[in-house]
Design brief:
Layout (H helix, E strand, L loop, with lengths): L1 E4 L19 E4 L23 E6 L3 H6 L5 E6 L2 H8 L2 H4 L2 H6 L14 H7 L2 E5 L3 E5 L7
Antiparallel strand pairs: 1-2, 1-3, 3-4, 5-6
């Protein structure tokens, strides 16, 4: 079970910044190959953080429903080139471009502790465009 969540286009998080709202959050069951698929939006960039998505891996739906005993809690970074392209739409993404120019993976207080190889593994591979939509992928391994 994978639980994925991220902020909206203007940087707000449901349940955190907006406690009466619950959106841009979802749980998917992995298929036999261990793969999941989510359909979502490209998250905005808020002050102090590089654009990212959070996720947790759980052994079962029951454990995912309680939010306890995650096997892994981590984040995935969005590629810089795609961020620049998407955030050019200031009408939708507000201050995201300005926030992006003030931060980087090397300055992000979570991502900066990782090596280059680790950041390569934690950065989504993306293809597409704002007009056609993006498809992103990442491989996440768990120690057994």
């Amino acid at each position: 079970m994978i639980y994925l969540w991220h902020n909206d286009a203007t940087g707000g998080y449901s349940l955190y910044d907006l406690p009466d709202e619950s959106y841009l959050r979802g749980v998917q069951v992995a298929d036999e190959a261990g793969q999941v698929r989510f359909t979502t939006i490209f998250p905005g960039c808020y002050g102090g953080r590089y654009p990212h998505m959070h996720f947790q891996v759980f052994a079962s739906l029951e454990e995912a429903s309680t939010g306890r005993q995650a096997l892994l809690t981590s984040q995935l970074a969005l590629p810089a080139a795609e961020c620049g392209t998407v955030f050019a739409d200031a009408q939708t993404y507000g201050k995201s471009m300005a926030n992006l120019t003030r931060t980087s993976l090397a300055r992000d207080f979570i991502f900066r502790d990782n090596s280059g190889a680790q950041m390569d593994a934690m950065t989504l591979a993306m293809r597409g465009s704002p007009s056609t939509g993006y498809e992103a992928s990442a491989t996440v391994g768990l120690a057994t």
